[in-house]
Amino acid sequence: MAKNNGRTEISTLGEFGLIRHLTENIRPVQPSTQKGVGDDCAVMDFGKIKNEELKIKNAADIRVLMTTDLLLEGIHFNLEYVPLKHLGYKAAVVNFSDIYAMNGTPTQITVSLGISKRFSIEDLEDLYSGIRLACERYGVDLVGGDTSASMTGLTISITCLGTAKDEDIVYRSGAKEHNLICVTGNLGTAYMGLQLLERERVANAEQPDFSGKEYLLERQLKPEARRDIIAKLREAGIKPTAMMDISDGLSSELLHICHQSNCGCAIYEDKLPIDYQAAVLAEEMNLNIVTCALNGGEDYELLFTCDINDYEKLVPIDDVYIIGHITKPEFGAVIVGRNGEEMMIQAQGWKAF
Amino acid sequence: MAKNNGRTEISTLGEFGLIRHLTENIRPVQPSTQKGVGDDCAVMDFGKIKNEELKIKNAADIRVLMTTDLLLEGIHFNLEYVPLKHLGYKAAVVNFSDIYAMNGTPTQITVSLGISKRFSIEDLEDLYSGIRLACERYGVDLVGGDTSASMTGLTISITCLGTAKDEDIVYRSGAKEHNLICVTGNLGTAYMGLQLLERERVANAEQPDFSGKEYLLERQLKPEARRDIIAKLREAGIKPTAMMDISDGLSSELLHICHQSNCGCAIYEDKLPIDYQAAVLAEEMNLNIVTCALNGGEDYELLFTCDINDYEKLVPIDDVYIIGHITKPEFGAVIVGRNGEEMMIQAQGWKAF
Quick check: B34 and A64 in contact, CB under 8 A? Predict the structure, then answer.
């Protein structure tokens, strides 16, 4: 390949050469992957999933889960401060998170990329190394994709398959009155990481100051999916009644569960798990950390509800926080403030239009 | 909704409202679709596929196929002359084509869209109506997706699942010496449709002249996947030894089969199926129609190889053309001209970089 200052133009490989280069040495680890990259389709044999893990005796109990996420430059990421390797890692992990949120196990992904001339082969190697690292850590196979030139920014579209035993699947629609509402990890931290990146980009492009705030950056740049919690809930014999991952912010996700389960909810401001560094930065930046926790998004933590009889089994599980309970639908979705005052929870969505 | 000259801004619905609006009234038809749009993932039960169609007795014989295609504005389509409904139809069908090319049946798709402010809700309704029409015609369920704002052009990423009996799947790697090489339909026609659209856009933007050439436009704007051929081959008791769909052009696809099957091939210029209208337009535009047929792309016809003993069963099948045969690898991939002269087949790929 013709190299120039460590930058190799994509044109030196061409479309097929590039795909071959990026996907060579991929070795499937999932028993269900019968054929990965290299044909019109990937081929999966879901009769061959890791039965010991899911304790599946009958192939007829297996369900296939499918989710997809589209990441667009300028909307979901800014390459001024997001390293391509981290971006690849995150793009894969956010999909795994959706599979775990159904109480499933991610097994395969396809990766589609739209890339413009300004990217070199080394850039794409970085992006792919992040995707492949995420796949390795979570035991997922990269089985296909589509790579195309783009007139504009970088486009990353990942679709993920997963498996679950039918009776294990948790939908958004199963929450019942008096169920406990739980979240994992902490909330608003990824959002504060983004604020920090934006602040340092504007103020100190040459010498950004992230000292003591590395955790916030990690939450924004390199989130993890909560596979650990799914495993612990299973070990503890707890099956959530409803579950989803927190990608758009707690408020919006709670409203989804209330809508689909036809219920109301009450959560308590003083129960929301908030990271100390995030709170300090919010203070510094004159932001309300509770608002950030409710609406920040991109935390990729789990929000779930479970039967109140599971309380004793739930308490010993690390990093799970009970923040409220499910109510009758006519009560709506409310948050109870530290002063005891009730406020209706508001939906947030895109603001890009 | 606030309407303005038949144009409703996306902001009037918001993200979740828009998704709900576009996906409401979707009724799954595939028995394998257990849960479609509306949760973190779609859920499929592939034990419940249409057994009568594939004659599957044992669920353990079922394989799941997965393919994905990314379509980017300015690269894959030009909205100056591509109606959004056609674009949606094509975006779905090109995925179905990949599933048929494995000798499978498409069953589910997810649709991810990146859309900028210049699109109205009516525009997205048009795009979705095309996607849904394709799904209806091919019996495929739309089970999920992701909708996002975009800073730039329209992005469409579709991933398709399908099913096949393991023993029915046809890979690119199974071609054997002396196998017949067959193509369906005609070649280069979609490319000539594109040339026509480009010519009329430049020359006669106000009054484009497409008379007598409607078929070329249809091939470019609204291609079909060759489900019919797959069914006929099955009825005739022919299982191709290798197969793929012709999306990048015959030359490039033949080289894939030769590479993956470790063989050479000889095809004959005078056997290439060429549409009359396409040939006339090529003449008019001073293009070599054979070059267009070899490298044009986007025909979404099938290229397959089969045992020479299937010849008698093959001949009665409408719209299948034998264009050559598989040779030893050391002979390479050659095309024999009308004058008997042999030329090596050259790969084409992207030229965008």
Answer: no
- Cα dihedral A185→A191→A194→A199 (10° resolution): -120
φ and ψ at residue A318, rounded to 5 degrees: -60, 140
Closest by CA to A39, choosing from B158, B104, B61, is: B104
DSSP string, B130-153: HHHHHHHHHT-EEEEEEEEE-SSS
A166 chain-B contacts, CB cut-off 8 A: 34, 45
A151 to chain B, closest Cα gap in Å = 6
Q: Which residue in A has a C-alpha nearest to residue B149's C-alpha?
A: A352
Q: Give the integer Cα–Cα distance in Å for B133 and B138.
A: 9
Q: Kindly report the average pLDDT of chain A as a whole number.
A: 92
Tell me the range of A190-204, A217-231, B49-63 where mean pLDDT is highest: A217-231
ipTM: 0.93
Residues of A in contact with B124 (CB under 8 A): none
Least Cα separation, residue A235 to chain B (angstroms): 23
Distance, in angstroms, between B338 CA and closest chain A CA? Answer: 30
Task: Give the pairing type, strands B242-246 and B301-306.
Answer: antiparallel
Q: How far apart are CA A228 and CA A230, in angstroms?
A: 6
Of B198, B345, B176, nearest to B266 by C-alpha is B345
Q: List the one residue out of B202, B222, B343, B220 whose CA is nearest residue B285.
A: B202
Q: What angle in degrees, to the nearest 10, is found between the helix axes of A214-221 and A189-203? A: 110
Question: What are the pLDDT digits (tens) for A237-293?
Answer: 999 999 999 999 999 999 999 999 999 999 999 999 999 999 999 999 999 999 999
pTM of the predicted protein model = 0.94
Examine the pLDDT at A352 and tell me if it is beyond 60: no
Whether residues A353 and B260 touch (CB distance < 8 A) is answered with no
Output the DSSP codes for B250-296: HHHHHHHHHHHHT-EEEEEGGGS---HHHHHHHHHTT--HHHHHHH-
Residue of B nearest to A159 (CA): B159
Cβ contacts (< 8 Å) between B161 and chain A: which residues? 64, 66
Whether residue B268 contacts residue B181, with contact meaning beta carbons closer than 8 Å, is answered with: no
Q: Which of B39, B73, B159 sits opposite A159 (nearest CB)?
A: B159
Q: Which residue of A has its CA nearest to B246?
A: A40
Q: Distance (Å) from the C-alpha of residue A211 to the closest C-alpha of chain B?
A: 32
Beta-carbon separation of B68 and A112 below 8 A:
yes
Q: What string of pLDDT tens digits covers the 353 residues of chain B? A: 444 567 888 888 877 788 888 888 888 999 999 999 999 999 999 988 755 556 666 777 899 999 999 999 999 999 998 999 999 999 999 999 999 999 999 999 999 999 988 899 999 999 999 999 999 999 999 999 999 989 888 999 999 999 999 999 999 999 999 999 999 999 999 999 999 999 988 887 677 888 889 999 999 999 999 999 999 999 999 999 999 999 999 999 999 999 999 999 999 999 999 999 999 999 999 999 999 999 999 999 999 999 999 999 999 999 999 999 999 999 999 999 999 999 999 876 544 44
Check: CB of residue B265 under 8 Å from CB of residue B258: yes
Angle CA B15–B18–B24, to nearest 5: 135
Give B253→chain A minimum CA distance, Å: 11
| Residues in B touching A167 (Cβ below 8 Å) | none
Among candidates A14, A114, A143 on the partner chain, residue whose Cβ is nearest the Cβ of B70: A114
Integer Cα distance of A136 and B206 in angstroms: 55
> Taking Cα atoms as reference points, which of A352, A218, A188, A175 lies closest to residue A285?
A188
- Tell me phi and psi for residue B22, to 5 degrees: -75, -25
Q: Taking CB atoms and an 8 Å limit, are A99 and B150 in contact across chains?
A: no
**Across the interface, do A114 and B75 touch by the CB < 8 Å criterion?**
yes
